[in-house]
């Protein structure tokens, strides 16, 4: 049963636009929630993600709190592996116990696309939507949105085939024109 505190939804958007395939990625965060949010960028390389070689850390300042309707741009390294989420006061430093968006941007070579997904495995706290120009959009607005769009609460099976994961940007296709929407903070 969905906890009532998550029944009221708000909206937060993140747009991603790298300058080049090998350039750093610019994320434009836009808070479309009805309340102030605190976005967090967390590295997961060599931790939640087994990727170590070639993956870079995010070393810039964390985004500042954002009032409803506010926007800001952050830049992550071209080969970053990590998560972006909205801290609700209950999330761990890497998004533990919360809904998160996950990005593997270290793999955009000629054979392996860069990838992104929505994960509610550790708990549903926020709805998300991730879209990319020329790539499939994933949306999850509830704890039971299904494997087509997000990893479900408590399910570490990978949905049997990692169906929530979307790949984009292999070869000379730039990982660009992305949007990430957060709802339910």
Automatic annotation (TrEMBL):
The protein's UniProt keywords, in alphabetical order, are: Signal
Residues spanning the signal sequence: 1-23
Taxonomy, superkingdom = Eukaryota
InterPro entries, per the entry = Osmotin/thaumatin-like_sf
Name of the protein described by the UniProt record:
Thaumatin-like protein 11
